[in-house]
From TrEMBL:
<dbReference type="GO" id="GO:0016757">
    <property type="term" value="F:glycosyltransferase activity"/>
</dbReference>
<dbReference type="InterPro" id="IPR023214">
    <property type="entry name" value="HAD_sf"/>
</dbReference>
<keyword id="KW-0732">Signal</keyword>
<keyword id="KW-0328">Glycosyltransferase</keyword>
<dbReference type="InterPro" id="IPR001296">
    <property type="entry name" value="Glyco_trans_1"/>
</dbReference>
<feature type="domain" description="FHA">
    <location>
        <begin position="588"/>
        <end position="644"/>
    </location>
</feature>
<keyword id="KW-0808">Transferase</keyword>
<dbReference type="Pfam" id="PF00534">
    <property type="entry name" value="Glycos_transf_1"/>
</dbReference>
<dbReference type="GO" id="GO:0009223">
    <property type="term" value="P:pyrimidine deoxyribonucleotide catabolic process"/>
</dbReference>
<dbReference type="InterPro" id="IPR000253">
    <property type="entry name" value="FHA_dom"/>
</dbReference>
<feature type="active site" description="Proton donor">
    <location>
        <position position="576"/>
    </location>
</feature>
<feature type="signal peptide">
    <location>
        <begin position="1"/>
        <end position="25"/>
    </location>
</feature>
<protein>
    <recommendedName>
        <fullName>FHA domain-containing protein</fullName>
    </recommendedName>
</protein>
<dbReference type="Pfam" id="PF06941">
    <property type="entry name" value="NT5C"/>
</dbReference>
<feature type="region of interest" description="Disordered">
    <location>
        <begin position="513"/>
        <end position="532"/>
    </location>
</feature>
<dbReference type="InterPro" id="IPR036412">
    <property type="entry name" value="HAD-like_sf"/>
</dbReference>
<feature type="active site" description="Nucleophile">
    <location>
        <position position="574"/>
    </location>
</feature>
Length: 760
């Protein structure tokens, strides 16, 4: 009985904590960390009970966690710290109190955090830069990322600008580079630096000079005696030197490596207490949504490959260190000597910028021609001829998920690599991988378990490994399944994000303790130099211009140019079928799930769009309801919802005109954790990070205070008999039998309807 009680309480924690009003963001992190384990099925009841037992052996009860979360109103960072405490295998009674103290202490309001500048080595689309984009997307609600600095233009500028960040191009080759950069940092009120890749050693040295806390992420694995060669010859960074790199290592207070092997490569250059390992995580929401929503045969057909083709994928910038020449040689051997006539090789990642890369592409062409293999460049091939060549090269692509889905085997025969994301992404797609046994790759792939490891620069071994997989479909399936489990177990995206947030908070706290007021104190104001300029604020010794808080609850009616009649009032707004077209997503996914033809699809749309019952499943036959629930719980369902016409524009207008808008939404009971997580993703994409604090996720809206609640549900009920708001119906077919309530049929008329409902 006691075992059942503990299990019940643990599950209760997972389901209930996200709806505590004070900590929904932090609990969302907690839930999404645990979600893959529960939903993925790899934690059975006995494993769950073992985790509970370890938890209690360490002196913590589940009830204590619930009480702490509610009592201290923990923020996102605080709950992330608690997650680390729960998951830390080395956790014991000795350090329990210090970890709990950190969890309690980590609550620093976003407005009191320093502005963060991200320094990148380019704006090209590659693994290192995608890491920055993913990190910022997830941390914008808890860290004050403000500006991106890069040495040259690139296609990723728009990705960051969509997030509301400014992008500033600075030329490291200029003789005044550091002087100009220092001026930009000071004038921009930057209080913290996040430097990405070893090539930003120049920025790390400048940051140290300015006394700014710095996180430096090293993606490369350059031998210490070849730092000059890699900087100047391989990456063409003539302004860098081994002396600059070594100086940066010696001065930086936080150096992050994505693998232990790589950390060992630079041992002796950094201070021991300044280095740590954080594995790069994989964001699975979009990846899994793609897997669910696309047919593999259709994806292959679009690339020119048929069901009988054996597709070997090599994804990554085509250059010497990625080893594509060995892929070409191995494929030539497989076709000529092992008679793999249906083998097709696709190399994605060609660019024609650097001379040594162009020469390398020419070598690949020559290898193919010398072996009598047909070679083609995708972009130069007529559509009807695509996929016919034995070796196809394609330029660098922004969207790469389709290639994983099309592939039978993914190759990573690199000569110099740390731990490329392509390995984890391939495994997440359940594709077997063949990789060089170098650097940190063996930390991600066990030979014969998730893939096959081969010596670097060994085309014969590479050919043998591919041939082994070519001959054995069951082995491919087995390795692919194991790879997926490895990703869920070791490369949790939420774990990575939480750890980086924790690292940044630790640096901020250290600076606050050494330079300024304690956490929670109001920062003293300094006088502005102009009446038109908002006052600067002091944060732990930094003089920081105020963040752009337009649209937060702090905006009052007197601060807006054209205040609404309802300015100053709080308006609560539901999301599903009120702000977003929930029905549209369901219609599309349900039809796909049952393989509906055009006529059946129209029937589904008619049934859903004109339905009588609010609960979607009640409009279907009993035997169809399980499939309905599966569709709702499918990955990406809530993240990919489309806004209703005029909804987002209306809500932003309301805020601009002094209305305090709060999005109050209930997670679907069939998938509360993923639903809550994906709704935050939707919010960031369509509203921006400044709306994070406007989101309230709860199953009971009757305790949320506001003047009005705009909601499509016919009757919004809960534990409070008399809710503190006036229910305004957002018009839908299933609520048209309700009388006596104001009704909003078009977002254009929001002010008129709300004014009437509130009798203004």
């Amino acid at each position: 009985m006691r075992t059942f009680s503990r299990l019940r309480n643990f599950i209760l924690l997972l389901l209930v904590v996200p709806f505590l009003p004070a900590c929904n963001a932090g609990a969302r992190e907690l839930l999404t960390r645990v979600r893959p384990v529960l939903r993925g099925g790899q934690m059975d009841s006995s494993s769950l009970m073992a985790s509970m037992k370890r938890l209690e052996e360490n002196g913590l009860q589940v009830q204590e966690i619930q009480k702490l979360a509610a009592q201290h109103q923990w923020s996102n960072e605080s709950v992330a710290s608690l997650i680390n405490l729960l998951n830390d295998k080395k956790f014991g009674a000795v350090d329990k109190s210090s970890k709990l103290a950190y969890a309690k202490h980590a609550k620093i309001p976003l407005k009191n955090k320093p502005r963060v500048a991200m320094f990148m080595h380019s704006l090209e689309r590659n693994g290192a830069n995608n890491f920055c984009l993913h990190l910022i997307r997830k941390l914008m609600g808890s860290q004050a990322f403000t500006v991106i600095f890069a040495p040259k233009e690139g296609p990723m500028r728009q990705d960051f600008e969509v997030l509301g960040l400014s992008v500033d191009i600075v030329d490291p080759s200029s003789k005044d580079f550091l002087v100009n950069l220092e001026q930009k940092i000071v004038e921009g009120g930057v209080g913290m630096v996040f430097a990405n890749t070893i090539m930003r050693c120049d920025v790390v040295n400048l940051s140290h000079k300015l006394g700014l806390p710095t996180v430096w992420v090293i993606h490369e694995a350059w031998p210490q005696d070849q730092l000059d060669y890699y900087a100047k010859e391989v990456f063409m960074m003539k302004s860098l030197s081994s002396e600059m790199i070594k100086e940066a290592f010696s001065k930086c207070g936080c150096v992050v490596f994505p693998s232990n092997v790589q950390k060992d490569i630079y041992k002796g250059l950094y201070r021991p207490n300044a280095a740590l390992t954080v594995y790069n995580g994989i964001p699975l929401t979009q990846l899994d949504a793609f897997r669910l929503s696309h047919d593999r045969n259709a994806v292959r057909k679009a690339l020119g490959y048929g069901p009988e083709d054996f597709v070997v994928l090599h994804l990554g910038t085509i250059c010497n260190r990625k080893g594509q020449i060995y892929t070409a040689q191995a494929c030539a051997d497989l076709v000529e000597k092992k008679h793999c006539k249906d083998l097709k090789c696709l190399m994605v990642g060609a660019r024609y910028i650097r001379d040594h890369e162009i020469k390398y592409i020419d070598q690949i062409k020559e290898t193919a021609r010398a072996s009598g293999l047909q070679y083609a460049r995708w972009e130069d091939t007529p559509e009807e001829e695509r996929g016919q060549a034995k070796i196809t090269l394609m330029d660098i692509q922004a969207d790469v998920l389709r290639f994983y889905m099309a592939a039978d085997v993914v190759l990573v025969p690199s000569l110099n690599e740390v731990l490329p994301l392509v390995i984890c992404e391939a495994m997440a797609f359940e594709r077997p991988v063949v990789c060089s046994a170098i650097d940190a790759i063996p930390e991600a792939v066990d030979d014969g378990v998730e893939g096959i490891l081969v010596p670097p620069a060994d085309a014969a071994s590479l050919s043998d490994a591919i041939f082994k997989l070519y001959q054995d479909p069951e082995l491919r399936r087995k390795l692919g399944k194991a790879g997926r489990q490895r990703v869920l177990r070791q490369f949790s995206y939420d774990a990575m994000i939480a750890r980086y947030g924790e690292v940044m908070d630790e640096l901020i706290e250290d600076n606050l303790e050494s330079k300024g007021p304690s956490v929670g104190d109001e920062p003293p104001q300094t006088s502005a130099s102009s009446s038109n300029m908002a006052p600067l604020r002091m944060v732990g010794g930094w003089t920081v211009p105020p963040l752009n808080l337009k649209g937060t609850a702090e905006t009052s009616a007197c601060q807006v140019e054209n205040p609404s009649k309802i300015a100053g009032r709080t308006i609560l707004v539901d999301m599903d079928n009120t702000v977003v077209d929930w029905d549209g997503m369901f219609i599309k996914r349900y039809g796909r799930a049952i393989g509906a033809d055009e006529a059946r699809q129209k029937e589904i749309e008619s049934k859903v769009r004109s339905r009588e019952h609010f609960e979607i499943e009640h409009n279907f036959e009993e035997q169809e309801r399980a499939k309905v629930m599966d569709v709702i719980a499918s990955p990406g369902f809530f993240a990919e919802l489309e806004p209703l016409p005029g909804a987002i524009e209306a809500l932003k207008e309301m805020v601009d005109r002094g209305v305090d808008v709060r999005l109050v939404t209930a997670p679907h009971p069939v998938c509360p954790g993923p639903c809550a997580n994906e709704k935050y993703d939707f919010l960031l994409r369509h509203f921006g990070s400044e709306w994070i604090d406007r989101m309230i996720i709860t199953r009971d809206k009757t305790h949320v205070v506001g003047a009005a609640l705009i909601d499509d549900k016919p009757a919004v009920t809960g534990s409070a008999a008399s809710p503190p708001w006036n229910h305004v119906l957002f018009d839908q077919p299933y609520n048209r039998g309700v009388e006596g309530k104001s009704r909003l049929r078009d977002w254009v008329k929001w002010e008129e309807i709300l004014s009437d409902a509130l009798k203004l």
